[in-house]
Amino acid sequence: MGNNPEDIKPSSLLELESTDKALLLPRLDPAKVTSPEEGMVVYDTTSDKFKIYNGSSWIASAGESIYNDDGTIFGDRTVTFSGAGEYMVADSSRQLFVYNSLTSKKEVFTPILEGYVGMYVCGPTVYSNVHLGNVRTFVSFDMIFRYLKFLGYKVRYVRNITDAGHLENDADEGEDRIVKKARLEQIEPMEVVQYYTLDFHNIMRKFNCLPPSIEPTATGHIIEQIEIIEKILENGLAYEVNGSVYFDVLKFNETKKYGKLSNRKVEELIHNTRALEGQSDKKNPQDFALWKKAEPQHVMRWVSPWSQGFPGWHLECTAMSTKYLGKSFDIHGGGMDLKFPHHECEIAQAEASNGTSPVGYWIHTNMLTLNGKKMAKSTGNNILPTDLFTGNTPLLQKEFSPSVVRFFMMQAHYRSILDFGNEALLASEKGYKRLMDALNLLNRLTPSQSSSIDVKGWECSCYNAMNDDFNTPILIAQLFEGVKYINWIEEGQQEISEEDLQILKSTMNSFVFEVLGLTKEQQDNSYSTKLEGVLKILINLRNEARLNKDYALSDKIRDELSVLGIQVKDLKKGIIYTLD
Amino acid sequence: MGNNPEDIKPSSLLELESTDKALLLPRLDPAKVTSPEEGMVVYDTTSDKFKIYNGSSWIASAGESIYNDDGTIFGDRTVTFSGAGEYMVADSSRQLFVYNSLTSKKEVFTPILEGYVGMYVCGPTVYSNVHLGNVRTFVSFDMIFRYLKFLGYKVRYVRNITDAGHLENDADEGEDRIVKKARLEQIEPMEVVQYYTLDFHNIMRKFNCLPPSIEPTATGHIIEQIEIIEKILENGLAYEVNGSVYFDVLKFNETKKYGKLSNRKVEELIHNTRALEGQSDKKNPQDFALWKKAEPQHVMRWVSPWSQGFPGWHLECTAMSTKYLGKSFDIHGGGMDLKFPHHECEIAQAEASNGTSPVGYWIHTNMLTLNGKKMAKSTGNNILPTDLFTGNTPLLQKEFSPSVVRFFMMQAHYRSILDFGNEALLASEKGYKRLMDALNLLNRLTPSQSSSIDVKGWECSCYNAMNDDFNTPILIAQLFEGVKYINWIEEGQQEISEEDLQILKSTMNSFVFEVLGLTKEQQDNSYSTKLEGVLKILINLRNEARLNKDYALSDKIRDELSVLGIQVKDLKKGIIYTLD
User: Fold this and answer.
1) What H or E segment, with its residue span, contains residue B292?
2) For chain B, how many structural domains are there in total?
3) CATH number of the domain where residue A411 is located
4) Bridging pattern class, strands B238-241 and B244-247
5) pTM above 0.90, yes or no
6) Furthest C-alpha separation in chain B
7) Quick check: A503 contacting B, CB < 8 Å?
C-alpha cells in the first residue's frame, strides 16, 4: 500500500457508510503530497502531529482539536487518531452514530443547530417507588447526556415528572394512579407526588445521574396543554363530546401517518383497545383522550373551555417538549414500552398542532428482566432499587452498591435486554473492583522513555465504541484493555512514555467517571471500622510494651498517636481513645 | 404547704396566663384525696406514677401519656412532669405557646382540626444561590415542623418555589428576576429555575432540613391564580386596565382592614410606592398587581382572560396555600421582611376572594446580620452558605460544618436578630463538640440503684423551653445541663437510676437530633487520614521488628492486619497496603 490518499478506506471499527468521515491516514511528511486537497488529513511523521490541508497550507492539530495558526480551532469537530501500523486510524469528524427507532437504522447524528442538542426523556409517574426498569432507562439516558456533553455539545436535557393524568389502565379510563394512592393513604395527591419525587431524586443521586437541565411537571403545564388541544381542534383533528376532547386518529391518518414509530396500521389497532364503559364517547376505538371531564370524585381537576377536568396522559410530553425544546428537537427518549401508544400519540399530537414532525432521533431503551423473567410484583419476581443496595431480598445473595449496579447496567448495550441476577451482579462487582484498583494503580505508574504499547490507538477505539450508538459494553471491553496495560506497566512487562501515560490517565478517567458516570465507592464505614481495628492492635502492642517495662516504646506509640490527634487514656475500665 | 389541690399555682417556668394548664402537683397517695374532681392530677407516691382522676377512679400514666385501664390514651394530650421538691411540676396539656405576629402576643396554639397542623412557608425565589438569611428562615421553620411532629401532630407543611413573577424592584414593574438571569446567561428561564432549585435543595439537605410535605411551584399554579383573580373581580375588589388586573386596596379597606399584620394605615402607604412609569394604570398607588400583561420581550407568559401575561408576585402564595391547606389554615410563616407588602397582600387577596381570614398564626423569623451589619453584596459584607462550609471567604478564619452552623442558628431565638461572625461560630463549634462528646459518653454510662439528680424535672424544662414559642436557646441551655449531668455521672460525682438513664438518653437524643435537627458530623476524611497515620506507625514498628529479627512480632502485625482486610506488601519501592 502506498501513501496515496486515494487508497483511503473506511475504518471497519466505525461501521461507516461513507468514506469521507473516517480515514486510514497515511503516515508521511505532508510536504511530499503532490496535490493536496482541502480537508485532506495525514499523520505528519516529521512533527509527529496530525495535519489537515486547509486549501492553502497544512495546519497542525494540538491534542484532539485541529488548530489554525492563530490558535483558533479549525472547524468545530474534534479528532481522534490511533498510531496503529503504517496508517493512522482517524475519524476526522468523530462522527456519532445513533440508532433511530423511527427509521430502524443507525444514522449519523446531526443536530438541528450545530453544537446544540435538545433531548427530551419521558420521566417517572410519581405514585410509587421508581421501578428498576425505569432506573435503567434513566441511567442509560444519563450516559447519553454525559457523552454528548463530553463531545462538547451544549445539551438541554428535559426530563419530566408525571404528577397527574396517568389513568390506571393506560387507556383513557379508570382512576388516576396518584389520586388513587392519595385516596388509599388519605392524603392530598400532591403529598404523594412530593414523596415519590423525592424518592426518585434520591435514587437518581445514588446512581450518580446528573440532574436534567429542566424537570417540568405535568400539573405545571395545564395551560400549555389546553392551548395545544385548542390548536388541534382548530385544525379539525379532534372533537369534543360531553366535556371531553378526543384526538381523531382516522381523520389524522387521512393526511398524515399514524403508527409510523411502532409500525402499526390504524386498522389493526382496533383490537388493542378494550371496550370499557365510558369509551362510548369516542367516535372510533383508536381515538385517544386529550382532555377528560372529571368525575365528581376526581380530586385533581382544572378549569378548561370544555369542562373541569384533566389532560389525557399523552399530552403533557408534547406540551413540555415543544415548550422547552421547540417544535422540532433532536432526541426523544424513553423505555421501549412507551413507543406505543405514548410516543406514537406524541408524534400525532405534535403534527396535528404544529404541522411538523417533532423529533429527529427517537431513542428507546430495552427492558430489564430478573433471573430471565419479566419483573412483576404479582409473581414476586420483583426488586426495588433500594433492595439492591440493602440486599434485603431473597433474590440476592448480598447487597450491591449503586456504583456496581450502574457498572452492571453499562455492561449491556441500552438496546439489549438486561437480565438482573445474583451471579451476574457478583461478576460485575469483581469487574468493577478490578477497574477501580487499576485506576488507583494508574496514579502510581512511572513513565519510561518510550511506549511499547499503542495508547493512541486504544484511545481511538474507546471513542469508536461510544460513537457506535453509545456501545458501552464495547467501551468497557476497551477499558479492560486499559486495565491490562496498567498492570503490564506496573509489573514492568511493558513501558509507557510520559505523553502516553497522560493520555492513558485522562482517557481512563474521562470514560470511567465522566462518560459512564461511575464513582469511587465511599468506604467511610469500613474506614472507621478499620481504624478501630488497627488502633486496637497498636494499643495492645503498647500494653505489652508496658508489661515488659519498655516505656520508651509505649511512650513512643502514645506520642505518635497524639500527633495524629488520637488521645489514648488509661482508665480503670480500660483504654479509651478519642479523635480530634 | 399542704396537699390540697386548691393550693395549686401556675409554674413560673411556663409563663402561663391560666392556672388550669400547668400545675404544681402534690406528691401523695391519691387514695388520700378526699373529694377528687375529674381531671385532677397527682403524682402517686405509692406507685411512683402520674395519676389522673377520670371522674370515677384514678388512672395511671405510662411514660408520657395518660392511659385508661384498657390501654387507650386518656385525652389526646401528652404530659410532662418534674420530680422537683415536694411537688411535681406538670403541664397536664403540654400546651404550646406561639408568638402570633398578627396579634403581637404569645398565644396558646390551637389548630383548626385537632391533631392536625397546616403550615405554609414562603419559599425561595430561584434565580440565585439561596441567601443565608433565607436559610435561617427555612432552618427555623424546619425546627418548628420537627417540633410539631415530635409533639404528635400530623403536619402538612407546604413550602413553595417561586419560579416566576417576582419583578425586580419588588413593586409591580421592572424585569422578572428569573427572566433577567436567563437573558444574561442566554438560557431558558426554566434552566435557571432548575439550577437554583437544585442548589437550594442541596443546601437544605446539608443543613439537615426535612423536605416539606408539598413543594408547589408558582408556574405550576397559573390556572389557580387566574381563578382567584376572577373571584376578586366578581367581588368588585379588583379592576382591569389594559390587560392587567389590580387589587383595589381602598375599596377593600372600606369593609375589611388592609394593613392589619404590619400595622400600617392605608393612607400612610402612599409614600411607600414610587411613581414609576407604567404604574399610571393603577387607580391608587397602594393598589397592587394581580395580573400583568406581558411586554413583548417577556419570555414567561401565559394566556388569561385579560392578556398574555403573568401573575403578580403576591398571588401565588394565596393560590398554593389555600389549594393545599384550605381557605383557613393554622400557620403561615416567612422572614419578617415579607410581612409587608407580601403577607399583607396575601391576607387581602384571601379575604377578597374567600371572605375568610386565611391564617391562624403568623410566624415571622428575624433577620441575620454579619459582623453586626446588614448583609449586602454591594458592600462585600456578604456570605453564601457554601462559603461557610469551605471557609473560602476573608470574613471567616476557617470553615464550619453545616451541623455547627445549624447549632449556631439554634442558639438564637428565631425572633431575635442573629449575628454571624467568626468568634461566635468558633464558640458554637466548641459547644457543638462538647454536646456531641457528651452524647457519645451517654451511651457508656452505667446506671446505679437510684438517682441523685432530678432527671424528670430536667426533662420537663426541655419541653417547657420549646413550648415557650420554640425557645431553642433556652432548650440548648437545658441540654447543657444534661451534658453536666452526663459528665458528673461519668466522673462518679452523681448517680443515676436505670429508669432515669433511659429518660436522659431519650430526651437528649430526641431534642438534639429530632427536634433541633442536629447531626453527628461525618468524619470520613479524618477517618481515612487517621487510618493511614496509624497504619504508618504500625508498619514502622513492624519494620523495626524485622530489623531486630523479631519475626514473631512482625508476622503477628501482618496477620492481625490481614484479619482486618488490610494487606501489607513489601515491594522494592516500599510498603503498599490495600484495603478490602
Assistant:
1) strand B288-293
2) 4
3) 1.20.120.640
4) antiparallel
5) no
6) 100
7) no
